[in-house]
Amino acid sequence: MPLDDPAEIRALEQAASRALERRIGGSVAYFQRDLRTDVIGFSDRFAQRHPKGWAAAKADWSELYPSMPIRVRADVRIDRLGMIQYSKARANAD
Question: A GO CC term (predicted)?
Answer without folding.
Answer: membrane
